[in-house]
Design a protein that fits this description.
The chain is α/β, with parallel strands linked by helices. The chain is about 45% helix and about 20% strand. The chain contains 12 helices and 11 strands. The strands form 2 sheets. A 6-stranded mixed β-sheet has the order 3-2-1-4-5-11, with helices on both faces. A 5-stranded mixed β-sheet has the order 8-7-6-9-10, sandwiched between helices. A hairpin with a 2-residue loop joins β2 and β3. α2 packs parallel to α3. The radius of gyration is 20 Å and the shape is globular. The two termini are about 20 Å apart. The model has no long low-confidence stretch (mean pLDDT about 95). Bound molecules: adenosine-5'-triphosphate (ATP), magnesium ion and fe (iii) ion (FE). Fe (iii) ion (FE) binds near residues 110, 114, 137, 282 and 315.
Length: about 350
């Protein structure tokens, strides 16, 4: 089926078009620059930006896919989780399109969409199930067990406080680096412009929820607020002592702490559930050290790692269209029009308001 997907859960306005498992276009407009001076995504600013970006993104996606609205078999949209006001813009647009074109509408879960993104990776073998999936972005840090993309996704654990990307953004801020922090920390850890690369073992920062006493109740959960405090305190002490802060070492050591705990817990899930497959997704996957450590340690553990191309890892409309195409292929009826934006949509709701439920 030819499906158009609309994604507006955070700061990316994404319009994607797929034909079955084939990617035709994936237009992304980001309001990230507008949030930069606030050091994080401002919901009202994001919602307004979606309103402005949607129509041009839609035109561009149709032109690049070389299809017209009349050709579509279905419209898909993210109904949650995400920022309520931002989600509402996409949901409103999707309903209007579906009604005016008289096309079926599929309202889907954003996080499951991140997993569906992998289907569009033309260079990879078909995705196999079950798989463990680790989704790390500015808003989410979730460990999932996916038995069936359209029917059975289980949340194993998630962050109890900050998301991994949020931690990168906050530490960057403490180090006086601009937003978004992820790429900046990467650059600083590499030594910046021509400097000496940082030592990831220079400072042993805490790995959240990794002590034996934490693991009993939070084996697959994450916590990054303690790490943030530890880094801030370490820097303060240095400054108070009148010593220079070794930015490259702090960045490399902080990054190592985040990467270590993410990879350790994801591989623990693979082992516990006897699933030799790990799928990575979300904008933090852009982190080179994370990819490196995940690939190396997974190889040692006999686990295959899948990393979709970055343009499909960050928020986009194509992954939403891809998930809807899978739902259609497995015979699911469209959603009814009685759904809204749900900022806390649980992962078990892969499709929202299916009309045959
Ligand atoms: P959502 O949480 O809804 O998926 P988001 O917009 O917060 O949305 P993404 O756009 O997928 O998430 O990712 C943005 C986040 O990824 C930011 O927090 C950013 O700092 C982080 N990030 C980007 N590049 C890197 C990197 N190289 N290393 C670490 N983090 C990175
Ligand atoms: Mg984003
Ligand atoms: Fe996302």
């Amino acid at each position: 089926p030819l499906v158009l997907g609309i994604e507006t859960s955070c700061d990316e306005t994404g319009i994607g078009i797929v034909r079955g498992r084939t990617l035709l276009s994936n237009t992304i407009a980001s309001s990230m620059d507008e949030h930069a001076r606030y050091g994080g995504v401002v919901p009202e600013v994001a919602a307004r930006a979606h309103l402005e970006a949607l129509e041009p993104a839609l035109r561009q996606a149709l032109a690049e896919a070389d299809v017209s609205l009349a050709d579509l078999d279905a419209v898909a949209v993210t109904s949650g989780p995400g920022l309520a006001g931002a989600l509402m813009v996409g949901v409103g647009a999707a309903k209007a399109l579906a009604v005016s074109l008289d096309k079926p509408l599929y309202a889907v879960n954003h996080l499951v969409g991140h997993i569906a993104a992998d289907i569009l990776d033309a260079d990879a073998e078909p995705l196999e199930f079950p798989t463990v999936a680790l989704l790390v972005s500015g808003g989410h840090t979730s460990l999932l067990l996916v038995r069936d993309l359209t029917g059975d996704v289980e949340l194993l654990g998630e962050t109890m406080d900050d998301a991994a990307g949020e931690a990168f953004d906050k530490i960057a801020r403490i180090l006086g680096l601009p937003y978004p922090g992820g790429p900046e920390i990467d650059r600083a850890a590499a030594g910046g412009d021509g400097g000496v690369p940082g030592d990831p073992d220079a400072i042993r920062f805490p790995r959240g929820l990794s002590r034996a006493s934490d693991l009993a109740a939070h084996r697959y959960d994450f916590s990054f607020s303690g790490l943030k405090t530890a880094v801030a305190r370490w820097i303060e002490q240095r400054e108070a002592a009148g010593e220079e802060v070794p930015i490259a070492d702090v960045a490399a050591s902080f990054r190592e702490a985040v990467v270590d705990v993410l990879v350790t817990k994801a591989l623990a899930a693979c082992k516990d559930y006897d699933v030799p497959r790990l799928l990575l997704g979300g904008g933090v996957i852009a982190n080179r050290r994370l990819r490196e450590v995940a690939l190396a340690r997974a190889a040692d553990a006999g686990v295959t790692v899948r990393i979709p191309p970055l343009s499909l890892c960050t928020d986009n409309g194509a992954m939403i269209a891809a998930l809807a195409a899978e739902l259609i292929a497995s015979g699911r009826a469209p959603s009814t029009m009685e759904f809204g934006a749900d900022s806390t949509l649980p992962i078990t709701e892969i499709q929202v308001a299916p009309s045959d439920a």
